[in-house]
Amino acid sequence: MPYTFLEKCSSTGDIFVNGERVTVCTDRSLLAALLAAGVECDLFCGIGQCQRCVVRVDGVRRPACMVRATAGADVILPAAPRRGDRESS
């Protein structure tokens, strides 16, 4: 079940996540908007300190929890690590 928020959207807009159009709430952080739209994202601190939610927004690396969701934004999520991708020690 996707992470949801109690408050309602006051405005929505379309963004592009890894090339796919997603309608999100534009009255909150990008991280909150992505999670509310059902997009799987990494979440830990929510205040920009841990850097776990870093994405590319219009070509610039930013913590998604510190950026306002903006209609028309091009968002690239980091690739999820796959089994066997880590170097063995």
Structural overview:
The structure is a single chain. This protein is mainly beta and 89 residues long. It has a single domain (12-76), classed as Ubiquitin-like (UB roll). The protein is built from one helix and five strands. Strands 2-1-5-3-4 form a five-stranded mixed sheet, covered by helices on one side. The longest helix is centred in the middle third of the chain and has 7 residues, at 30-36. It is globular.
Strand order of the largest sheet: 2-1-5-3-4
Indicate how many domains the architecture comprises.
1
Order of helices and strands: EEHEEE
**At the third CATH level, what is the topology name?**
Ubiquitin-like (UB roll)
Main beta sheet: strand number and arrangement? Answer: 5 strands, mixed
The chain-level structural class is mainly beta
Mean pLDDT: 83
Number of helices: 1
Question: What's the Cα radius of gyration?
Answer: 14 Å
Shape: globular
**End-to-end Cα distance:** 36 Å
**Reported CATH architecture:** Roll
Q: Which CATH class is shown?
A: Alpha Beta
CATH superfamily: Beta-grasp domain
Q: Give the amount of beta strand, in percent.
A: 25-35%
**Helical residue percent?**
under 10%
Low-confidence stretches: 1-6, 85-89
Number of strands: 5
